[in-house]
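#onboarding

Welcome to the new folks! Below is a worked example of what a typical request in this channel looks like: someone posts a single protein sequence, and someone else replies with the predicted structure as tokens. Don't worry about understanding the tokens yet, we'll cover that in week two.

Example request:
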Amino acid sequence: MRVLLIGAGGVGSAFAAIAARRDFYEAIVIADFDEARAVRAAEDDPRFASARVDASSAESVAALCRAHAITHVMNAVDPVFNMPIFCGALEAGADYLDMAMSLSQPHPKAPYSKTGVKLGDEQFAAAGAWAQAGRLALVGIGVEPGLSDVFARYAADHLFSEIDELGTRDGANLRVTDEDGHEVFAPSFSMWTTIEECLNPPIIWEDGEWHTTPPFSEPEVFEFPDGIGPVECVNVEHEEVLLMPRWVHAKKVTFKYGLGDEFINILKVLHTLGLDRTEKVRVKGVEVSPRDVVAAVLPDPASIGPRMVGKTCAGLWVTGKGKDGEPRSTYLYHVVDNEWTMREYGHQCVVWQTAINPVIALELLATKVWSGDGVLGPEAFDAVPFLRLLEDYGSPWGQRDDEVATAR
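Example response:
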């Protein structure tokens, strides 16, 4: 296996640090528009090389694949670049993985009730071409989407006979401080992507169809494990809701995230001021995207780890009937402590938790434990080998039944 990792930011660099400890691949080429950043990420291992790539160009991606005899393209950049990378990989005859799917477009007349172009629609429209080429595009294999989708497969196969709801619930108690110890606003993930998913109409699967709802709707307080505690979660647009119903039968599928009042208020202000827009505006003779400016002035998520404390939790709350036919409510989850990831890997916990899942998926593909062609989500594969490898990587998952937590 020869991997092209596109993107040497927070997640890409964490991916490299995790992969450096594994032996399932021959080489990894780390590419970024900023080649100096790729060079730094490639210093972790002699099997790594660095390169420059224009992620907005399918031709640039395909040429780099051919130059390095790449077998698998790993997309670790903002989803605005998904389609060029996705198409470039197919053109070069390589398999493809990403952690967020092609972007949505709200319904032009009824955005808060009807779907327009859904997340992943552009990619699933190309499924036939990928299958015909005998190539695999494994989409949505970060932490969210990704791990919760693996949990959905596991719950359907091993825990439930009938599923009422697959409810992804993510929360954290993370805090970032400045040099003087004062808490500051510093998102732990790409602000560009966060604005995209939080201000778009959230999508819900219910009674056999998808519909939308207003941003930040249906707040609920969810009790997170391992000392995180209660966090208010709200509806957010996310890929799990588009992926899970394709392979796992459930009456309802939702995604709710614990953003917090401060973050929600900031997002609302950005929207009110038009600073969430991606269309460029002219400022003193220079054309800039307002959203790009917002992302640029905030701290780089890759840099905040030393000033961050707390834990992050990604998980799936499943309700329905167990294999015995009795009512069941189970939360499958993965908690990561920032102190641990900084000490062990030198990367903050949110990007590390995102990066570990595609590394595991690539190992399963390299060893032929997972295989397939076309455009597939994590739910299309056996969950047990993935969860076993997650433990082998030193990051166990958990299961809570009726408020009783058991480590796995």
